[in-house]
UniProtKB/TrEMBL annotation:
Residues 49-70 are annotated as: Disordered. This is Peptidase M14 domain-containing protein. The keyword Membrane applies. One of its GO terms (biological process) is peptide metabolic process. The chain crosses the membrane at residues 1185-1207. Residues 50-65 have a biased composition (Basic and acidic residues). One of its GO terms (cellular component) is extracellular space. Its cofactor is Zn(2+). Residues 1-239, 325-617, 718-980 form the Peptidase M14 domain. Coiled coil: none annotated. Keywords: Carboxypeptidase, Glycoprotein, Hydrolase, Membrane, Metal-binding, Protease, Transmembrane, Transmembrane helix, Zinc.
Amino acid sequence: MHGDESVGRELVIYLAQYLLLNYGTDDRITKLVNTTDIHLMPSLNPDGFEASKEGECESPNDYRGRSNAKGVDLNRDFPDQFDKIKVNVEEYFFGGRQPETIALMKWVMSKQFTLSGNLHGGAVVASYPYDDLGNGKDCCEESRTPDNELFRHLAGSFASRHEDMRRGDACKPETFKNGLTNGAFWYSVQGGMQDFNYLHSNCFEVTFELSCCKYPRAVELPNYWRMNKESLISFIEESHNGVHGFVVDEDGNPIPNAEVYVNGNSHSIVTTEHGAYWRLLLPGGYNITVIAKGFYPSPYVSVVSPSSVNVTLHRRPRNLRDDFTHHNYTAMEQFLKDLSETYPELTRLYSIGKSVEGRELYVLEVTKDPGSHLPGKPEFKYVANMHGNEVVGREMLLLLAKYLLNQYTKGDVRVQTILNTTRIHLMPSMNPDGYEHAHPKDYNSIEGRSNAHDVDLNRNFPDQFGKTQDNELQEPETLAVMNWTSSIPFVLSANLHGGALVANYPYDGNPQMKSGWKNPSPDDDVFVHLAHVYSEAHHKMHLAQPCRHSNERFQDGIVNGAEWYVLAGGMQDWNYLHTNDMELTLELGCFKFPPASDLPTYWEDNREALLQFIEEVHKGVHGFIHSHIGHYLADATVSVGGIHHAVKSAQFGDYWRLLRPGTYNITASKQGYESVTELVTVPPTGSISLNFTLMPDDPQHWSSAYDFRVLDNIINTRYHTPLEMYAALAELENEHPAVAEFRAGDNELTSSLHQLKVTHDEGSPEETKFHIALISDLYGSQPVGQEMLLNFARHMCTAYQIGEPRHRNLLKKTVLHFIPNLDPLYSKMLRTYDHTEKCDLQLLEEEFGDSLYNYLTKKNLNPLTNYTREKAFVDLLESEQYDLILDLASGTEDVTIPNISKEIYEKYAQIYQDNRTPSRKYQCKENSVVQENLLDLIFKRYDVPIVSMGLSCCKMPLESDIGWVWRNNLKGIMKVVEQANTGIRGFIRNTEGAPMRSAVISVVSGASSRQYRVSQNQAHYRALLPPGDYRIIVRCHGYKDQMLTWRVVQGQLKQKDIIMQRLNSESLPGGQFEEVKFEKDPDTVYITGLTLTSSSVPLAHTTLSAWPLPKESRHPLWSNTSDSLGRFVVSLPVTYMGREVMISANNDGYVTTNRHVKISSSDNLTPNIILKLEKDDNVLGMPRLVFIMVAGVVGVSLVTLGAWCLSCRSRSRDARREYMFAPLPDDDKRPLCENGAYDVIRRPYYDEEELPPSDTDSEDDIVLLRTDRDWKNNDEQT
């Protein structure tokens, strides 16, 4: 194959000669030739061989000889499993490849070889598939086939008989254990021949590297033949291992191209044109099955390798053969009309709307007694061709419709049961416009994918994570499907696609909108089961084989949508979130628009899966909901405990809730009726009927049962003004003074934000209690939370007053802070309230939450406000150090949590959702991104988590509905507040018992972490944590970090005190020291220990004295000094046993330290007393700091005095200069100075008045002053 690797070429010639010469004389060779069709190809690359040179052990730099005549490495030229296919299969396989490659590929695929060897040189090793990793790595990672152990055996059969190969080190420095290697582990090769053989034919191929030198001298060939002869023959004999036989039909005719599968192994082989097959297997027992087009799959057959087994397949009726063609819109329309006219008692053809280009969106209803919803009959739908160029689903639904109708009329019991008990809706094409723009044999393009507006319909539905450019406006096809789905109580559906082979289940999106991040729905176990049902019933999907254009493998043929690739605006997520319908997306094949000739295979692969998936609509719990007088109750809510997803009853009170086998609490509720909860067990068979009878609602009965008969919470409910709210909270203090305190203006914190504080033994210390705040009106447009806050305050105070143990116990551990009226806009809005519901209330002014965010970020600040309330709220956060804040919000029923420590607070969100009753009276909107950012910012800056709990999808429901909102949410709010019973608390002290007030605790849960600071009094910490395992890190400056692991159990508040040890407190320079050896006297007690510096260095020659307590004597009981290692022994009379003495330690340069020591009362030795001495920083008997201050004062004084003296002298000299002038006599015309040593300025003096004065003269007498030198000389003389 590589022209310059010549040893294999010659060995194949030798082998051919050997087999021919020994045939008929050697029994082994005779049997081998008689039973094996042996093909020997000496050279796949004769051109390269001709360009090579004998004796060249390595390929030249230009690889001349190794490659073919066009310079192409043939072992990199084959189709690879990780290739990205851009064209049709025929062109992909053979287009642009070398003639040698094409010839070999066609030869291999036509002959259906069982086993082969590819002989190479340049190493000595047996290399088995796969050769390619596909992940970009070059080596060192195995790429295993489903037959990995078989390949190792085959490679070993050759290597173990080769004396150099089995040693593994023939070509050093490379070494191979037992002379074997996985190809990709050695080095990754893309486009290798052995991988192609395994993936695209029946052939199991191993690559054998036979020589260190690629083209050795001919004289060495006999030795190579000697080493390889037995290995070559034994390898051929391995072709007879495994299972072989024939696959035939009932008449004994061979069935070509039937697929033979081994149970538990995804790799299949196919029969030859004569129906023969050979499946290599290791010795042992196996179960095999055979699948062929037009035949029923064979049941699993138990076989033992090696053996011969023939299989007979039974032909399927092929009455649909004429329909295996592609139907354009006109043909599809006629096909549906023909079925509807032929089977009027079983079908109804209707349209749910029109496409952009005006084509009808047809749906064929297939059921007994079609036309309308029947009580107790579940609704099912298949939707196909959402992407116009993905056509397999379109044709499968047309075939399914005809199959169901044909089989029903033929008496097929299974099909009759399906149609008698299920109303099936088949929509062959959701995007008929796109189909008309698609073209056959399109493998994976996007031509025709979108609708006529060029919009991807599977990105066009409203999405739970907000709007995108693709779903801001719904297309006609999307709106039609939404209206259709909302008008019929569908229970189960599937959306049929193409381009992959996998069952995809919700959710398709995740909050991060990042692919690869799984986002399971609340019903994940049900969706996974449904995906398995289809995948396992499909002939190939469960095998998880990748498409040729991709290396994607889906375990068991299923995948979570977001984990595969994330998308927003998908149909399956919308169905689940906004209707009763649970929908999967089924990718039916790698080829988007395959040739019509492939349709029979697609039908055979999918028929059983399509039927089994329809049958799943009957699994779980179903029944009717009636009133107490027998009326159907439509639109009642059916919820399952622990699953945050409810369904609604249909027009006849019938409902269906898909569930896996297990035990559940199922609640039926409807406004105006008492809710009923039943415990039900779904059996392994998967289906059970459960009916509900609801009694008319009695608010007082509910109040007595759940709310301690606080009737104000549910009767005559209304929205309170801020003043009314404060008055109601103040009244709670008057009624419950032992537990409640209303704080309004008693300090700066409560002057702007009034609050009610509720806790056991109000006024007592609260340092060790959890502090939970409940706030409302973070956004003034969400006022229903204000009423829930007041209701919950009443609920807690009343429960405490009547002695309810659950609430009393909670308040002993917790301080509840009720803080209403955060947003002053609420009072303005309430003045114009017209007593109607305001579900989408939008205030014109900036709400408090937005204003707070802008204030904290210093963005978009309003120059007309001083942010008084925002500052007050921030002060509360900083001073109160809340453990948790619950924001009672509305406009949603979702819970918004900080993204920081998300894993912790997601559990609180789940607790809330699991214990509240969802209401579907209103349509929820998506959460505010700004609010999420605010919660993150507050948590990051002030270490205070805020959990925003959505109470109702309507921001401001009717006042009469406030009681219902309370009833739906009381249990959820209470369960979250009760988490104060779950967590860890304690004190952090050092070994001496002193509080560590600067300690910090970090709690780590998965990828989330949170820091907790201790109280400034007793260094108490509180960690409010949901159940789970946590890693704890405790830090304090100067102390060793502590690493702990805590398990938090639901309902248990554990006390965990933490003792911190100083750095170096347990390790001394030099390691461990032996105790001082001394002779013990029974009449003496001894104290032993060490004297150390503050940094734990042993301090030698320290004087130690023992003094009695109380200290009455001036003389110590005993004195001694420590040795060179700082060790000491104190000896005292035995009468001091059990008494306390003071040990004093003194050393020059250190501060004397004293320690009280309690002498052991049971032993005459009290060991391990540590005395640490601080360095004496005194200077001249003063502490260093005092000395520095005194020296500084003295220094400054001296400098000031010197400066004053210098100033005085300067002023004296200046004074002499002012008065020592000498006016010249009028008649004296002499020069001023006659001493030539002086620098004298000489100028004539004129008395004539007629001369004008110069610029420097004055009208006064002109005098001549002394120079500085004159003054200096004069000063020196004086």
